[in-house]
Amino acid sequence: MKSFSSRLICSCAIVCAAVPMFTAHSAQAASAPTDRPVKVQVNDELLKFPEVQPYIDDKGIMQVPLRVLSEKLGYQVSWEKQADQIEVTLVNKQQSILLVTEQPQALVNSKKISLESSPTVYQGNTYVPLRFITETFGSPIEWNDANQIAIVDVDGKSHKPAWIAPPPPPAPAPAPKVAAAPAPSVSEQIAQTANAYMGVPYVWGGTTPRGFDCSGFVRFLYQAKGIDLPRTSAEMHSEAGTKVTDLKAGDLVFFASKTVNHVGIYLGNDRFISATTSRGVAVDSLSSAYWSARYVGARRVL
Questions:
Q1: Containing H/E element for 257?
Q2: Of the candidates 70, 69, 35, 65, which has an alpha carbon nearest to the alpha carbon of residue 148?
Q3: What class is the 186-300 domain?
Q4: Residue closest to 300 by CA, chosen among 223, 222, 247
Q5: Where in the chain is the domain with CATH 3.90.1720.10?
């Protein structure tokens, strides 16, 4: 027989009278642990398991490796292999206990007692359910859910947990809300769209992207937004919208040689876009020598 002080006692099932039954959430099989780390405490001492750790199986039973706990409780443990099973014997001055892996019964001083689950081998170590501690040794067990600790009250007294779980990390602060940029007005949209036609050639009487004259270009852009304008620049100057001096993007700007004969769309920053006879659709400055000498005012349609 090989001595190995307590491979079986500490495989505890937290299902004793004082401990609530709980269901495992991530077990792979009956002998596989869940993803919840659990600890075992004897009186005020938190036990350390250097080889393998206690776990909760897929039936919600806490299983603990035997060696560490049996040494703490004063038992000598020996074992021998019989065919495919392992027989484990625990002995102290008062008791002799025989456990057999995969057998749901134990012999305690030659008396058979039923186990909540059979002793099992996991990762080369023998485990038993924690309820076995209460049923066999008479030590009550408390389950501290907040810290996931099974507390074995060997001295019969109630004990506080010897380990306090760290608080969960704070939730990340919500990202600051960024106010959405206001949607451009229809007149601003018209001014922005006008830039897409840069370089379209000038065509007398032209009203399509194949070629524009100045009023055909302006009228085309406004019609795309459902706004009908007169056909000629002179008619727009006399009939469309209202006269303004504080120019905004989308306003109509007019130019004359004796009479009004050219119209464009103001873009902002002293610039306007229009269909010119020399360069097609192009952007110019209101303050340039040529256009400032011919500028006669602006009108706001929207």
A1: strand 252-257
A2: 35
A3: alpha beta
A4: 247
A5: 186-300
CB 242 within 8 A of CB 164: no
- How many Cβ atoms are within 10 Å of 44's Cβ, its own excluded? 12
DSSP label at 157? S
Round the CA-based radius of gyration of the chain to a whole number and report it: 45
Closest CA to 7 of 93, 123, 171: 123
Closest Cα partner for 163 from 25, 39, 51? 39
Residues 9-22: tens digit of each pLDDT = 333 332 332 333 33
Q: In this predicted model, what pLDDT tens digit does every residue of 74-129 receive, in sequence order?
A: 888 888 888 888 888 889 888 899 989 888 888 889 888 888 788 888 888 888 88
Rounded Cα distance between 97 and 264, Å, is: 103
Residue 177, classed as helix, strand or coil, is coil
CA distance 222 to 140: 87
- The phi-psi region of residue 176 (left if phi > 0; otherwise alpha if psi is between -120 and 50; otherwise beta) is beta
Give CA 130 to chain center in angstroms. 37
What beta strand segments (E) does 105-231 contain?
105-108, 111-114, 120-122, 125-129, 141-144, 149-152, 207-208, 211-212
Q: CA–CA separation, 176 vs 198, rounded Å?
A: 40
pLDDT confidence band for 34 (50 / 70 / 90): low
Q: Name the nearest CA neighbour of 250 among 181, 184, 189.
A: 189
The matching CATH number, chosen from 3.40.1350.10, 3.30.457.10, 3.10.150.10, 1.50.10.10, for 2-152 is 3.30.457.10
Q: Which residues belong to CATH 3.30.457.10 in the chain?
A: 2-152
Within 8 A by CB and 6+ apart from 275, the residues are 200, 202, 206, 212, 213, 214, 216, 217, 281
